[in-house]
Design a protein that fits this description.
Arc Repressor Mutant, subunit A; Transferase(Phosphotransferase), domain 1; Phosphorylase Kinase, domain 1; 44% helix; 5-stranded antiparallel β-sheet; binds adenosine-5'-diphosphate; 3 domains; 13 strands; alpha+beta
Length: 281
């Protein structure tokens, strides 16, 4: 990532900006649109795209014209560049985790200290299947990925200060930066006071609900715990409590948590009662 980042000159940066600005309108952004935005000749853009394609930063495609889109790596490098430019991140560290839909890095921020940068990759690389199932027109998967990052950032902004979630620091492209929490995922730890921890988690779900947000993918993998408390993370699938599917998602979230505590700690709570508590009924 860092080598790729260092290999970019100002012309490349302008090209990546132009691809980003136009990717909402074109699956592959045409050379002439990039040339116009950068004020550089089409021949020079073509040459630069060959280099960027070779670095696996762009995916170039000839149809009636040459067009370019981001690879996941390319979008991530582009987003990192913007984060550094606005001083949200000063140094990228090691990979903390890699999932199907994201890659998470440790990083340093001059202003916030230790932070976490999550690069989203929703729909990648099986975007074609996604496209068949849902009607996204001919949008490139990078558009879905940016939307997913934005949704996560917006949910965190809305929740921070009201519920126990990581502090959101910045969002650019497919990257969301949050403050590092020194805690472990629930599924990794054996807790000695499971009743208290379960109550704390349910209280967080209640606070999020009161703030108008349902997590949508809550489980023992997205809850961090340490001796100070619990934190809820990973919000790209969050929905508004006004969403038609809201109740279904809420019940699924709560059920996942209750099932986990019953399975792991033989703690049983009634789903209906808990739902009433969360909705303040
Ligand atoms: P995904 O579910 O797509 O893998 P997550 O948001 O769950 O993405 O992040 C993956 C992992 O990165 C988490 O399980 C957690 O270990 C770590 N992580 C993410 N955000 C933070 C944070 N703010 N502080 C500490 N660890 C984090």
């Amino acid at each position: 990532m860092i080598e790729l980042y260092r290999g970019l000159d100002r012309k490349d940066e302008c090209i990546l900006n132009a691809i980003f600005d136009n990717m909402w309108d074109f699956e592959y952004v045409p050379v002439h649109a990039i040339a116009r935005e950068c004020g550089i000749s089409e021949e020079k853009i073509e040459l630069a795209l060959k280099k960027l394609g070779g670095m696996r930063i762009t995916e170039n495609k000839y149809t009636e014209y040459l067009g370019a889109s981001f690879t996941f790596k390319g979008l991530s490098v582009f987003s990192l560049k913007r984060l550094v430019n606005k001083n949200a991140v000063s140094m990228l560290g090691n990979i903390m985790g890699e999932g199907k839909e994201s890659v998470v890095y440790n990083a340093m921020s001059e202003r916030y200290g230790e932070v976490v940068v999550k690069f989203h990759r929703v729909g990648y690389p099986s975007f074609k299947k996604v496209k068949e199932k849902r009607d996204y027109g001919s949008l490139h998967y990078t558009v879905l990925t940016v939307r997913s990052a934005k949704r996560e950032y917006n949910a965190l902004k809305k929740l921070y200060g009201y519920a126990s979630v990581p502090q959101p620091v910045a969002w650019e492209g497919n990257a969301v930066v949050t403050r590092l929490i020194d805690a472990k995922e629930l599924f990794r730890v054996k807790i000695s006071n499971p009743g208290d921890v379960l109550d704390m988690i349910l209280e967080e779900i209640k606070k999020m609900y009161a703030r108008g947000i349902i997590h949508g993918d809550l489980s023992q993998f997205n809850i961090l715990v340490n001796s100070d408390g619990v934190w809820i993370i990973d919000f790209p699938q969050s929905v508004d409590t006004k969403d038609p599917m809201a109740q279904e998602y809420l019940e699924r979230d709560v059920k996942n948590v209750l099932d986990y505590f019953e399975r792991t700690y033989r703690l049983k709570k009634d789903l209906k009662e808990v739902m009433k508590y969360i909705k303040d009924e």
